[in-house]
Design a protein that fits this description.
By secondary structure, the chain is an all-alpha fold. The chain has one domain. Helices cover about 70% and strands about 0% of the residues. The chain is built from five helices and no strands. The protein starts with a helix and ends with a helix.
Length: about 110
């Protein structure tokens, strides 16, 4: 799984935690406050704008990734990343086995 896909999954997790269905630029301040209130990690509004794609970003620091993953209920970025990869691989195996079962039925 490529990093952009994992970042997308992390974005979705953060939005789920914030009960936001479609993020808009003005939501970044509220997300920053919610993260700080929950785990006392401060992520600036500008950093969140970069994370959600409203501003250009070259990369995301490990602190930001850890903080967002912790906000999403994980111990940190590495646990989130490994769990996301594991779920994706499990879904691929499941879809392949379902496809094989469908071919046998025909």
């Amino acid at each position: 799984m490529e990093e952009p896909d994992i970042y997308h999954q992390l974005r979705n997790r953060v939005l789920l935690e914030c009960q936001i269905q479609h993020v808009e630029v003005q939501d970044c301040r509220a997300v920053s406050i919610q993260i700080f209130n929950r785990n006392k990690n401060y992520i600036s509004e500008s950093t969140l704008k970069r994370f959600f794609g409203f501003l250009p970003a070259a990369h995301h620091s490990l602190f930001v990734l850890n903080s967002l993953a912790q906000f999403g209920g994980f111990t940190g970025w590495e646990e989130f990343r490994l769990e996301t990869i594991r779920k994706r691989e499990k879904n691929i195996v499941r879809s392949h086995s379902q496809g094989a079962s469908a071919q046998k039925i025909r």
